[in-house]
Amino acid sequence: MTADTTSPSTAPENTHSRVGVTDTAAELLRDLTKRHGPLMFHQSGGCCDGSSPMCFEDGDFITSDADVHLGDLDVGLDRGIPMWMSVSQFEYWKHTHITVDVVKGRGAGFSVEAPDGVRFLIRSRLLTDDELAAFDLV
Questions:
Q1: Residue 9, pLDDT above cutoff 60
Q2: Residue 67, Cα to own-chain centre: how many angstroms?
Q3: What is d(CA 48, CA 97) in angstroms, rounded to the nearest whole number?
Q4: Residue 28 in contact with residue 108, Cβ under 8 Å?
């Protein structure tokens, strides 16, 4: 499953995405949404829990012009789950596609999955030549 929206670039809408989600993570996110309501992610920049993706109830983490909306994770709900990253960190990650996954183990206490004994993590790959071109990175 991949995001329905693209990053803030000149890429045509719904053509390429910077974010995706594994089936296992999507299943957990559907369950967490039932319990907590709409969710959002902010990719941590190294504070608190290293560089883990932090999942919050939507609006519990305030974003601003200092953050980039990477896209919305399509987990099979009426609404995608927005994923954000700080502008300064995005400079390091702009050539990367990010996939949200989940593994057993405790992560940060701030992220909504923490009480379930699992934690979200990022799997990444470099963007393809087509994606680089679509995001004006060549």
A1: no
A2: 13
A3: 23
A4: no
